[in-house]
Amino acid sequence: MKRILTALFLILIVVALIFRGQPWMLTLASALIAELAAYEYLRLANTSGARIPVWWMIFGTALVFLFTLPNFPNEAELPALSAMALLLLAWSGFREPLERVLADAAIGLFGLIYVAYPLTLIPMIWKRADGQPLLLFLMVCVWSGDIAALYIGRRWGRHKLTRLSPNKTWEGTIASLAGSLIAGLAVVLAGELLSAHGNTVLHILEPVWESALLAIVINAAAQLGDLLESAIKRGAGVKDSGTILPGHGGILDRIDALLLAAPVLWCVLLLKDAVSLGRF
Fold it and tell me: Which of 105, 114, 155, 254 has the fewest Cβ atoms nearer than 10 Å?
């Protein structure tokens, strides 16, 4: 029950931000989540032997989000990340043992790319012409896939998927894919039904078959993101990234699928724009 209540509370907040929030609210919420998740990542990394300073991770995560604001040029984001990497390299270089210098710099930079950057895409997707329904589509695909995998896999799962996560099964994987596909199409069809009555709040500018394909791609990325976080936790020798969410573990445990699904969706959108295939 604790898990369900926590999930419902978080879903209500996300949906409210998508349809009632302002750009600054979405950016602030994403940045706050990123800071908490980055701290959990830092603890996992330091548990496995790294010595990355907390101040560097907090500052680096905030810096990445600055470039989502209107007055900051997006093209400066890569130089800023490079500067942060060099700063961490220099910081590590004057500490012992020197054998950790390259590893710590690489792990720290990866943390910004793995945790902070994907969450900067949330407000950027929201700002698109059809960003609100598209962002809801992303979230629904991730949520429904996770729910289907959990309950179907727990009930009927027999064939283990991978040693990275012993509880995951092929049955759960297939159920996750089906769950994302069904729920994603439900959002699209609901949008078409509302549009027929003059309400375009859920209208997504794409054929249904493209929505179905996009739901499959998002689900595949989400499941891989879940497995990658499991690999990080197993490397650190822990079960959960934290305990901040009752019944769910840490923030990183809840957004691991989104951390890969959001960049994949963003790449699809950029590709469609680049080759003039139209918008989702």
Answer: 155
